[in-house]
Amino acid sequence: MLLIQNIRLSRILRNTWQVDLIMIASCTVAYLVREYLISHHFSVPSIIPTLLGTAIAFFIGFNNNQAYDRWWEARKVWGALVNDSRSFARALLNYVDQDEESVKRMIYRHIGFLYALKANLRGTIDEIYTKYLTEADLKEIEKHTNKHNALLNIQSRDLQRLSKSNAIDGFRFIEINEMLTRFSDSMGMSERIKNTIFPTTYSYLTKVFIWLFVVTFTLVISEDAGPASIFLGWLIGFVFVSTQINGMSLVNPFENNSAGVPLNQITRTIEINLLQMLEEEEIPEPVKPINDEYVL
């Protein structure tokens, strides 16, 4: 997630340089075609780039709005996980009687659940969660493809055991079980966002229309601007392309990039909070921003 208010132009150019080269080549070809092939036969009506520009603005606006909705929903889901995690640990520490070992094991297992979920959403191999699990837990989840879901199942089983041993009363059992249900809901919503592909045609058609707009715009203004129309065509196209790329960077909010939801930071924050509630001595450092620009 970006932290800075002003983005350097160099960062934008690093993300768009390939498209910029294509646009410059397209504008050059359009200028040469108009200058040496069609200038003496007909002129391109200015209404064409005008209508295309209007249509593209609607397309980009719609795409960016939908992309931000996906990103914001993902951020709300993980914000809820932060709140529910703290409540879960607090309930276990204060409501469960005479079984401190089980409480610590369940809180540790919850930290492991968060790291396992994060690794799954990022599509990375992250074994951090294993240090918070017992040998029995590791052996049980080994046969599961969805390890975070398997950990929730173990949590429910341990909670049921606490209830049967009268370490927790029925009302508080229901309250803590509802938190486990919310964890499952947040897990499912995260997986839905990750596994739901943003319609490919939206992005593809927008790219095609931007290319057509850049070409027709160059053809129209080359009559008055001459060779400068190549630069002007690229400049106008750069505005549309940069805006579109900015929106598309939010489409997959769990990707490990500067525009994604900062899962590393959020998970580490929860980890620190829960370990401090357990009064542990070894507390990890918070995740620090990279180059003071963004946090992962």
UniProtKB/TrEMBL annotation:
Belongs to the anion channel-forming bestrophin (TC 1.A.46) family. InterPro entries: YneE/VCCN1/2-like. It comes from the Bacteria. Keywords: Cell membrane, Ion transport, Membrane, Transmembrane, Transmembrane helix, Transport. Its main location: membrane. Pfam families: Bestrophin_2 (PF25539). It is found in: Cell membrane. GO terms for cellular component: plasma membrane. The keyword Chloroplast does not apply. One of its GO terms (molecular function) is chloride channel activity. It is a multi-pass membrane protein. The chain crosses the membrane at residues 12-32, 44-62, 202-222, 228-245. This is Putative membrane protein.
